[in-house]
Amino acid sequence: MKDTQKMYFSDTEVGNYYSLSRYTIRRWVREGKFPPGVKLNSGTRRWPRADLQKFDQEVLRQKEEKRMKES
């Protein structure tokens, strides 16, 4: 994320970070593949930086496990 001081990110910002569309992020949330984020009173969602970092670590762990199994 470019703004490291920011605590919450929109679906567009999250999509840009992962090089995905915001619609893909929303679909992944519905499918349980991505953290749900926090739903605001306005009906929009925001993702805490900590949730995104945790997701990144999980993806890296899964890739490492897969690599180890293939070795």
Keywords summarizing the entry:
71 residues, mainly alpha, 3-stranded antiparallel beta sheet, 11% strand
Question: What this model shows, in words?
Answer:
It is built from 3 helices and 3 strands; from the N terminus they run E-H-H-E-E-H. It has helices at 11-17, 22-31, 49-70, and strands at residues 8-9, 38-39, 45-48. The protein has a 3-stranded antiparallel beta sheet. Helix 1 (11-17) packs across helix 2. The protein is elongated and about 50 Å long.
Q: Per the principal axes of the C-alpha atoms, what is the gross shape?
A: elongated
Give me the oligomer status.
single chain
Unreliably modeled segments: none
Largest β-sheet summary: 3 strands, antiparallel
Number of helices, counting only DSSP H or I runs of 4 residues or more: 3
Q: Kindly report how far apart the N and C termini lie.
A: 33 Å
What's the helix-strand series? EHHEEH
* Percent of residues in beta strands: 5-15%
User: What is the number of strand segments?
Assistant: 3
Average of per-residue pLDDT values: 91
Radius of gyration: 14 Å
* Estimated helix fraction: 40-55%
Spatial sequence of strands, sheet with the most strands? 1-3-2
Structural class by SSE content? mainly alpha
